[in-house]
Amino acid sequence: MTNPNSKIQAPCQVCGKNVLVDPYGNGFCENCGWVQNREYDKSPDDVRYPNIVAFNKAKRLFAEGQPLSPSFEDFIEGLKFYKEMQFDYDGKTYGVLIRENDAVHFYLFHSLVNYQIYPSVTDFHEKAHINGTPLSSLWSNVLNASYMRL
Predict the structure, then answer these.
(1) Residue 103 burial (CB < 10 Å; 0-12/13-18/19+)?
(2) What is the pLDDT of residue 37?
(3) Is 21 left (phi over 0), alpha (psi -120 to 50) or beta?
(4) Bridge partners, residue 143, by sequence
(5) How far apart, in whole angstroms, are the C-alpha atoms of residue 123 and residue 59?
(6) Alpha-helical regions (H) of the chain
(7) What distances in angstroms separate CA 142 from CA 100, 111, 134, 137, one per listed residue?
(8) Measured between alpha carbons, how far is 146 from 14 in angstroms, rounded to an integer?
(9) Alpha-helical regions (H) of 36-116
(10) How far is CA 121 from CA 11, 83, 130, in A?
């Protein structure tokens, strides 16, 4: 029987550096930031948990010497997949949730000020804003975009 806590070295799926992975192929690459997962072979062009950049895009970004940072569109794809996302902007943490009837709730954590609800992901993508500035325009200043972790 395989010990689920045992780790072996394997090449990172993105950068090729050695990574410690569990018997299921899961592990984190300290070199490029990719989270190893066997599921990426099945859908290499789709954003899937735990990464917010598609596998093929991550390989391209690494080859170009760029960080594996998600674009706003990658974030939207992660939202469609996982339904709960978050990011930091200007020292504050924001949450985005897909709820009943596919409505998208966008809010500042621990605050009801500027709570926004959109009828669809498309409306959120087109209209979400922080203090009147479109989220898509601010995205280059967003940090720590990820699946909901709090």
Answers:
(1) middle
(2) 87
(3) beta
(4) 88
(5) 30
(6) 55-63, 72-82, 121-127, 135-138
(7) 27, 19, 12, 10
(8) 19
(9) 55-63, 72-82
(10) 36, 10, 17
- Cβ pair 27, 14 in contact under 8 A: no
Structure tokens that stand for 115 in this block: 């709570």
54: tokens are 């598609």
How far apart CA 68 and CA 51 sit, in angstroms, is 9
What is the per-residue pLDDT for 68? 95
* Chunked mean pLDDT (size 10), the chain, 150 residues: 76 96 93 91 91 96 96 97 96 95 95 92 97 96 90
pLDDT given at position 3: 66
Residue 11's identity, in one-letter code, is: P
Task: Identify whether the C-beta of residue 36 lies closer than 8 Å to the C-beta of residue 28.
Answer: yes
Nearest to 13 by CA among 71, 66, 56: 56
